[in-house]
Amino acid sequence: MKLRLRSRNKPRGTSAYFDIKRAFPDLRVETVIDIGANEGQSTETFLDDFPHAHMFCIEPSCANFEKLSKKFSGSKRISCFNLALSNETGTALLDTTGRGDMHRLVTETAEDNEKTVVQEVEVSTLDDFCMQHDLRHIHYLKVDTEGHELAVFSGANKMLTASNTSLVEVELGMNPENTYHTRFEDGKAVLEENGFRLFAIYEQVDEWPTKQPHLRRVNAIFASQKLL
Questions:
Q1: How far is CA 33 from CA 42, 84, 108, 113, 191, in A?
Q2: Which residue from 46, 68, 159, 180 has the least number of CB within 10 angstroms?
C-alpha cells in the first residue's frame, strides 16, 4: 500500500490526488483513459488514486507496449491497447528514436533522416475508441503524446466536452523555444472552448536541453465546468 502524507495544508499543485479529493470529495472516478501510457508509470499511480476505476492504457510503441502489458497482465482493472490516437483513423509513423518516453508520431519526411527509427502503427480517434468500447463518460483523461495533443483533441469532438469528460491531464510546453511539446496556450484554448477550466499545474520541468532555469513543460489538469 502506498503511504500518503495526511496534510490538509498540502500546497496546491503538489499532489493531484490531494487536490482532486479536496476539491471534488464526491467524485467517483470509474473510467480512466491513459493516452501515451508508456510503460505504465502514471497508471500505477491511478490504480492507487482511483480504486474504483478501470484503466484503458493506450500506447503505440511496440517496445513500450510489451513492457506495459506484461506489467499489468494480472490486473482485471487494466486494459492495454497497442495503438495511437489522433484526428483520424488509419496508420501512421512513430518515431522510436531514443528514450521510450519521447516516442512521437511524425510525418513521412522524417524518413529522410537516416538516424531516425520509425515504426508503422495503427491509429484511431478517441471518439471511435470510446464508441467501440461503449465508453459514454471519461472521468479522468490523461494525454501525453509528445506534441500530438491537439490532433488527439481534434479526434474527440464528442467525448471532449464538459458533459462527457470530467478531468483532463495534459503535458504542455511552456516557452516559445520549445517546439517539441504542444504550446500551453494552444492546449488551454482548445480545452476552454470545450468547457474546461484550468484546475492546477504539476511536474514543472525546467529547460534542461539548454540548461536554462525557465520552464520547459508542465502537466496541467483541467476540470469540466459541469464538474466545477
A1: 11, 13, 28, 33, 17
A2: 180
